[in-house]
Amino acid sequence: MVKPRAQMTEVAMYSPGKPVEELQRELGLSRVIKMASNENPYGSSPKARNAMMEEMENIHFYPEVTAPVLADALSKHLNVSSDRFIFGNGSDEIIRMLTRTYVNPGEEVVMAEVTFPRYRTNVFIEGGVPVSVPMRDGTHDLEGMKTALNERTKMVFVCNPNNPTGTIVGEQELLRFLESIPPDVLVVLDEAYYEYVHSGDYLESLEYLDQFPNLIILRTFSKVYGMASVRVGYGITQPEIVQELLKGKEPFNVNRLAQVGAVAALEDNEFLENTLKKNKEGRMYLEDAFKRLGLSSFPTHTNFIMVDVKQDAAAVHESLLKQGVIIRPGHVMGYPTMLRVTIGTEEENEQFSRALEKTLEAMNV
Fold first, then answer.
1. Cα 27 off chain centre by
2. Which residue in 21, 51, 162, 248 has the most C-beta neighbors within 10 A?
3. If we measure between CA atoms, which residue out of 235, 213, 255, 301 comes closest to residue 78?
């Protein structure tokens, strides 16, 4: 057997939330809800769906390599010049482009200890050294991350809001951190959940692109826009960095349907506002339910909540599965007594809270 690269022997396949269909087959359940993968429970914009269906007429053509129409639409939407955008098959692919383009073997990349796992994986695959800094109350310890920098550091990842904790770092704290990073170290701000943030103490990073030429901002259409399956992520940075990333980008990585769907999604403010309104209502419902059960949770600025159930997360996860509820257990993310639950529809939130209460009652007997 041909041996893979040494790094690949130590990399595990990404493990997503358990599929609904799989759990239905395993347990013979007719009703299963999935609150594990931070998908939009309200679907996607009707305008986006219609645009993608119309584009089916052209599926025999390759898509445009740099998605110029989408770049122009985002340029108008965000008031950023179109040459600052790089598009990926989800923002995960842009993370891979970044490590492929900039991380040499032996160079270090600093990140939080509990954050999006693909940072670590992609750094490791390229032969880089992931440097993890412990969290502080579920939030990035920016001072600790700054201390971890040295002459071998090539890149820093800050997930803001952070996945899986849902927390943010304050505006001034993040700004001071950016000011402290040497110009030859790339700073990647992953803002996949940007639209959900409901705090005035949040750095509007787009305003600082010119002040920090080493800044790269990642966003996506997978979350609030509900387009997870078609895979459209984007980075915003200096045109010179975009040109370097394009060299290693797969030629037709964002398909035609995804490109036109994303453009149409930007035009549907009604869908966006409705999603944010319902997400807020769901967040408040779940936070109240947790308080009633005597449970604490991290303050979230996303479409998910990480709650401490004060029990073995794996056991609670298994009990919820038997009741037809799929969540993400915290023991696989460094929090052995916590669950990460996606904020669902009103009906889903109620079913989850009932199942959780039933589980905790049985465990505390």
1. 30
2. 162
3. 235
Q: In the structure, what pLDDT confidence band is assigned to residue 7 with cuts at 50, 70 and 90?
A: confident
Alpha helical stretches, state H, the chain:
20-27, 46-55, 68-78, 91-102, 118-125, 142-147, 171-180, 239-248, 256-266, 269-292, 313-322, 346-363
DSSP designation for 302: S
Tokens linked to 196: 């959900």
Q: Hey, which residues does 215 pair with through a beta bridge? A: 187
> Exposed/middle/buried for 269, CB within 10 Å: 0-12, 13-18, 19+?
exposed
Q: Cα–Cα distance between 241 and 214 in angstroms, integer?
A: 9
For each of the domains in the chain, give its residue range(s) and CATH number, in order of start. Answer: 6-43+270-363 (3.90.1150.10), 46-266 (3.40.640.10)
pTM beyond 0.85: the answer is: yes
* Nearest one of 169, 171, 173, 150 to 161, comparing CA atoms: 169
Confidence of residue 27 (pLDDT cuts 50, 70, 90): confident
Q: What angle do CA 17, 133, 155 make, to 5 degrees?
A: 90
Report the distance separating Cα 54 and Cα 51, nearest Å.
5
Burial class from Cβ neighbours inside 10 Å (0-12, 13-18, 19+) for residue 1 reads exposed
What's at 140, amino acid-wise?
A: H
Helices (H) and strands (E) in the chain, counts: 12, 13
Residues constituting the chain: 365
Which residues have C-beta within 8 Å of that of residue 138, sequence separation ≥ 6?
A: 114, 162, 165, 166, 167, 298, 306
Place of tokens 């304050």: 170
Least Cα distance to 150 among 189, 179, 109 occurs for 109
- Listed residue (185, 193, 189, 164) closest to 175, CA to CA: 189
The full DSSP string for 227-254 is -TTT--EEEE--HHHHHHHHHHS-TT-S
Q: Cα 257 vs. chain centroid, distance in angstroms?
A: 22
Which residue reads 């700073």 in tokens? Answer: 187
Max CA distance (Å), the chain: 62
Per-residue pLDDT of 127-146, as tens digits, reads 999 999 999 999 999 999 99
